[in-house]
Amino acid sequence: MYELFKNLAKWLVSGDQWAGTDGIAHRIAEHLEYSLLATLIAAAIALPLGLLIGHTGKGAFLAINLSSFGRALPTVGLVVLVFLVSGLSLWSVYVALVVLAVPAIVTNTYAGMSAVDPEVKDAARGQGMRGHQVLFQVEIPLALPLIMTGLRLSLIQVVSTATIAAYVSFGGLGRYVFDGLAQRDLVQVLGGAALVAIVAVVLDLALAGLQRYLFRHRRTAAH
Prior knowledge:
mainly alpha
């Protein structure tokens, strides 16, 4: 076990391992591209849906059930299905990652909007605010903590699952996992898994820091 971790450390810090198109730096860039783009697409779909449902109170049952359905879909199976339909294309990867990311964003956005005190909304309307003003000036600011939580959860899920790109012959950190398994190279497999975990933790800490900054700034402005 000691030798295994010693070889893993050497693999991670080797200068040769970081260079070139097969190097760690390039694979991390590919992994981030897949993950961030998929999460942005999912947010563009899920945020308006969650906000609409939370604001109007209509369609909640459908949205929650669709979200549960999205969670239940086997990600690898979905990748293979889209891959067979679209051919050799990254669409298969992005479709699967977006489907994975949407549920957490929808449910957390809806939960955040639902948690806004109805009396606060009534007071805003009583002051003459219209529907869109109540939404953007009252409901969204109050729901923002849960909305941000949904985005964080989705991003971490996507980062952890983006290794499937390598399953259909594309890049990313999953390349080390699948190639390592094919070559029976345990060090490479562990290295790929460790890098995915590190990237996920760093992104989560970055979003957590951004969230703290935004809410500290908002509290300061309120005072």
